Amino acid sequence: MEQFPIVCICGSTRFEQETKQMAEQLTLAGQVVLMVNCWSKKDKLHEPQNAIDEKIKEMLDKIHKQKIRMADYVLVMNIHGYWGKSTQSEINYANSIGKPVRYVESLNNSKEKEGKT
């Protein structure tokens, strides 16, 4: 049975359309794509006054880290050089377990410089 490479896409949920387009491109190129699947609640998940949403966000973060473990490599959607704290945490995690980390845009354009590989 043919084995296809597995990629986990990481990045800000503000880049939903770009992430979905990249997932389609990678799938058509013969890769298995793991990524965020809960887009509809993205704004509510970051409201600190809602404890239930915070618990859901913690669970989703754990699920995404499991996806990183399952992947052969991580692709960061650093559109316009941006990524936030959650994505930085995912990059750090991928580095800590030896997963290769690639970026859609050159790191020279990135606004976040800390912890780059």
Helix fraction, binned, reads: 25-40%
- How big a fraction of the residues is strand? 5-15%
The separation of the N and C termini measures 33 Å
Q: On the 0-100 scale, what is the average pLDDT?
A: 87
Number of strands: 4
Q: Identify the strand order in the major beta sheet.
A: 2-1-3-4
Gross geometry: globular
- Uncertain runs with pLDDT below 50, 5 residues or more? 113-117
Number of domains: 1
Give the number of helices. 3
Structural class: alpha/beta
| Major sheet description | 4 strands, parallel
SSE ordering: EHEHEHE
How does this model look, in words?
Helix 2 (51-70) runs parallel beside helix 3 (85-96). The chain has one domain (6-109). Helix content is 38%, strand content 15%. The relative contact order is 0.20. The protein is globular. With 117 residues, it is α/β, with parallel strands linked by helices. Strand 3 (73-77), helix 3 and strand 4 (101-103) form a beta-alpha-beta unit.
Q: Brief overview, please?
A:
With 117 residues, the protein is an alpha/beta fold. It is built from 3 helices and 4 strands, in the order E-H-E-H-E-H-E.
